[in-house]
Structure of Probable E3 ubiquitin-protein ligase HECTD2:
Amino acid sequence: GLERGAKNQFSTFNNFITTINQKKEGIGNRNSPTQLVIPNIRNVRDLPPICLDVRQKQRMSIDTLPQELKAPVPPEPSLPIRTKTVKDFQDDVEKAKSSGDWKAVHDFYSTTFDSFLEINAAFKKDTNSPFNTFEDSGINAKFVNVVYDALLNTPQDVQKSVLKGVINGLLQEWKGPRTKDDLRAYCILLQNPQFSNTSTYVIYAHLLRQIAALTEADHHFLVHWSKKISQRRFKQLVDRLLQFISLRLFPAKPEEFPPMVKCTWWIPSATKVLALFNAANSLISPPIISYTDFYNSTLDHIDLMEEYHNWQCYGNSHRFSFCQYPFIISIAAKKVIIQRDSEQQMISIARQSLVDKVSRRQKPDMNMLFLNVKVRRTHLVSDSLDELARKRADLKKKLKVTFVGEAGLDMGGLTKEWFLLLIRQIFHPDYGMFTYHKDSHCHWFSSFKCDNYSEFRLVGALMGLAVYNSITLDIRFPPCCYKKLLSPPIVPCDHNTLVGICDVTLDDLFQIMPELAHGLSELLSHEGNVEEDFYSTFQVFQEEFGVIKSYNLRPNGDKIPVTNQNRKEYVQLYVDFLLNKSIYKQFAAFYYGFHSVCASYALLLLRPEEVEILVCGSPELDMSALQRSTQYEGYQKTDLTIRYFWDVVLGFSLDLQKKLLHFATGSDRVPVGGMADLNFKISKSETSTNWLPVAHTCFNQLCLPPYKNKKELKQKLIIGISNAEGFGLE
């Protein structure tokens, strides 16, 4: 097979193409199983370039189209009659393996893949049924899988006959719109495992180009049909497309491919087809594969800012940029784009301040290049609020924090300390801005009404400053918060436009108030009489400062009983009230605060989950990676104490590892760049070994006494990390 060392199996494939029968007879005959092939596939007519603008397409829902699209449906040609079953095929393969006579198998493959009609004749579940709906592709998936699984174990001439047939099908003269049989053939051909081999990439590229050039209506059928592919094979298809893009960008053997200038359409075509699979994946809950499986880490090594600027300048034109398809860009690459975009904005703002100062013939001051925040520890929140409100024009400058009455330059440590102390104080339950839900371990916005929501704007600005200045915060918001934060991702020009309002579901409520969500779920699944058993109306009650207040979910909701017929509407209105309407003013202030710092087209590239990772870091811990990147002061990595330390830490449970990370850095989450970005340091503490370890969270530093044995180190370390509350600031 292709994967088992037969590297030269298709090494002469270009020669093979040139030796295929050069006549074009029968190309127009769709029913002929013996259509002939043009010798050089590179000479096939050009199709229009493929380009998709994320600012237009990404926000459109596939489900908004009607089930039966109004595009004209061409008549389906009659299919040849093919009666071979899965068992018949498997018997043929077994006989061929034992006898060495592959003629029957060869004939099946060469006939089946010779044209789109033959592909449908072999793999369509019922040749007499049209299968023109989103719900059923009509493909006998089991037969397709068996045929493809056997293909790579057949002799070389069998595999070449399949590729010859694929070329035949791709070179047909298309007249008018595609039929559903054509779409089925494309769907089946995409799953061909031969396309994992670089020697077949020329054919694969032309297949991708034709699929990418289909109409939007046809794409919707392919998207919905792709949802039915098994997880393993879906992942294989995605990985194959990602590999194709990577090897075209950075080929191991450039001579294997045509020159880049002659195949500039390869990558756009593959990316657009990948977008179809991404759309299919997003239509299912839970998704077939993780959104991170669409990341192509190869893109981390290209000029990302050029991609970003091309997208900004030519977003609506035919000029391709990976930023038009942000699902393919890894969170690490997106962070680079956001950081560099932030740096450019910082430089631009600072330069303008300098020019303004010089133009007024005033002496320039280096402090004007920074956002200088001066606060008193005793009035931390009020001072911070005043400073950020007064210096709103400077929010996009580099942040520098000073604590009044204290010596010390801010080299990053004071900034991080300011964030840690401020977040800790604002999120304290006594402060009243946020409610902590113990069941879900997260904070949510208090629905209490007040006259001034400026402090919510401060929290939003803090989150924006953290992203802007690459600081990871220990904030526990539910995923729904980040979805609302990107609704919309760009602040609307019309201030009357609602912001922070998004579609919310019972699943979103489960992540915040699981007990209440469970109760509503019970209401939905109740088999008795809802009106008599629950005795509820379209009304909710909330306690505000000791007073119970009622709110109608619908006009006159207090007079509308909840019944079996309207309970879904009741639950949806209830969830929308809790997560959108009851906290609208609080969240709107928070939204404007965040975007006052982070206003950038780069936010269009982000998913809500990715915003959360940028703000809070990733929950995935890799202590071995932390060990490799740790720096030492007073210790060598070969010292006995250090060896004891890592033996103990690597043997910790995940919960204890998180406690250690929180103890040493102020957060149990990892920056986007991984453990190496923590700049974690272990310093030798010259105190008595009776002392517990000490951490300087502002510098991600752990001070470790030279304990005499592993047992003592483990005991003291667990006591320290399990009982750490507050900041031991020296």
